[in-house]
Write a structure and sequence with these properties.
By secondary structure, the chain is an alpha/beta fold. Helix content is 33%, strand content 21%. It has helices spanning 16-27, 68-75, 102-109, 114-125, 136-161, 199-207, 222-227, 238-241, 321-335, 337-340, 348-351, 357-371; strands at 7-12, 32-36, 47-50, 53-56, 63-65, 88-91, 94-97, 191-193, 211-214, 229-234, 251-261, 271-274, 283-286, 298-307, 316-317, 343-345. The strands form 4 sheets. It has a 7-stranded mixed sheet with strand order 7-6-12-13-14-11-15. A 5-stranded parallel sheet has the order 9-2-1-10-16. Strand 3 and strand 4 (53-56) form a beta hairpin. Helix 1 (16-27) runs parallel beside helix 6, helix 1 (16-27) packs parallel to helix 12 and helix 4 (114-125) crosses helix 5. It starts with 6 loop residues before the first strand and ends with a helix. Bound molecules: uridine-5'-diphosphate (UDP). Uridine-5'-diphosphate binds at residues 89, 98, 152-153, 156-157, 160, 172-173, 175-176, 273, 275.
């Protein structure tokens, strides 16, 4: 399509999906304008420098992938450090290693060998082994029995999602590895790390000289922005694009409380989860440990799960049957003749998916190879 518009693409949102698209578009000399309602670029991977420490302003982001193409792609822009995520769980003042591995089984039951651990797990899951798990609670009981579920999963999960674990889809817990080695690496992926120099460096590298305007809400002057480009890549919430005409997609939000402390090391680990339901936050991040920081001070963030409303950020899509059905209605509309020529949709908010960063990049590369070929 050729029109007199100044740009080939307007991208609504300046997060990771947008940045990958913008980079690929720049390789083909496309004219791109990006706008974002926040006053900074980077979306949720944006970091703020506090006391020389990169603070993950929108929650912990740990890059991990098994996709070599994605790994090589990001390594064009930044090198990665050797950070390996090994969160510790605090339940009623006792500490447990995560993900569920031989260290955890030893801490829970005193078992010392894989054979002992397997025998113990067989015993504790016996009452549930015939379940065909249809929700997160059943899935967790089926995998590891009652003790592990109640100490390390139930409280955290119900705080995190704001509903009983029986009403949460089981796939969420399938993200967590379960292994019979003394291996505290939270992820099974081949590649992992934090960008040296921080995530902002990755975002800056991707955007290059792309024109970006921050602090502008697309919906304030949608017609004006639309007229500026032949096509619009919209990376915001898909329901909002369509005025929530079929209803609102549900999300879970977070509230962060960040503090600078006059100590060099508060908790000895980047991530400590609090799995008891009576502790109101789910985890404490100590940002310097993502980058092996050595300064005299430290910055910590307590992460409180929160109802999603228009006043806070949409972090976790709920992805249950009701919301998936609603999503299909919006996706159908997005594909209709009225919209598909002008608008493309992508990213975790437009796709309503629980994307990790590598999924976002993979999805963006897929879209660009279709769109820009
Ligand atoms: N989870 C849990 N206990 C923990 C950590 C995680 O039960 O200590 C469960 C919880 O249901 C959570 C899911 O595992 O929603 C996925 O956790 P993950 O750490 O992958 O979530 P994210 O880092 O994306 O918030």
């Amino acid at each position: 399509m050729t029109t007199s518009a100044k740009y080939d693409y307007l991208i609504v949102g300046a997060g990771l999906f947008s940045a990958v698209f913008a980079h690929q578009a720049s390789l083909q000399n496309k004219r791109v304008l990006v706008i974002d309602k926040r006053d900074h670029r980077g979306g949720n991977i944006y970091c703020e420098n506090v006391e020389g420490i990169n603070v993950h302003k929108y929650g912990a982001h740990i890059f991990h992938t098994s996709n070599k193409e994605v790994w090589d792609y990001v390594n064009q822009f930044v090198d990665f450090n050797h950070y390996v995520n090994s969160p510790v769980a605090n339940y009623r003042d006792k500490l447990y290693n995560l993900p569920f591995n031989m260290n955890t089984f030893y801490q829970l039951w005193g078992v010392k060998t894989p054979a002992e651990a397997k025998a113990k797990i067989e015993e504790v899951r016996a009452p549930y082994k015939d379940l065909e798990p249809s929700n997160l609670e059943e899935q967790a009981l089926f995998l590891g029995g009652k003790d592990l579920y109640e100490k390390l999963i139930k409280g955290y999960t119900e705080k995190q999602w704001g509903r009983p674990a029986t009403q949460i889809p089981s796939f969420i817990i399938k993200r967590l590895p379960f292994r019979f080695t003394f291996d505290n690496n939270y992820f099974n992926d081949l590649y992992q790390g934090i960008p040296i120099g921080g995530y902002n460096k990755l975002i800056d590298g991707l955007f290059g000289d792309t024109e970006i305007l921050t602090g502008l809400n697309y919906f304030d002057e949608k017609e004006k922005y639309d007229a500026m480009a032949d096509k619009v890549l919209y990376t915001g919430k898909i329901d909002e694009f369509f005025d929530c005409q079929f209803g609102k997609l549900e999300y879970r939000s977070l509230h962060f409380e960040t503090e600078v402390l006059d100590t060099d090391n508060f908790q000895g680990n980047a991530v400590v989860n609090y799995t008891d339901k009576d502790v109101p936050f789910t985890r404490i991040l100590e940002h310097k440990h993502f980058e092996f920081g050595t300064s005299d001070k430290t910055v910590i963030t307590r992460e409180y799960p929160h109802e999603f409303s228009k006043d806070n950020e949409p972090y976790y899509p709920l992805n249950d049957k009701v919301n998936e059905a609603l999503l299909s209605q919006y996706q159908e509309l997005a594909q209709s003749a009225q919209y598909r020529e002008k608008y493309i949709f992508g990213g975790r908010l437009a796709d309503y998916k629980y994307y990790d960063m590598d999924d976002t990049i993979e999805a963006a590369l897929k879209l660009t190879s279709r769109e820009l070929s």
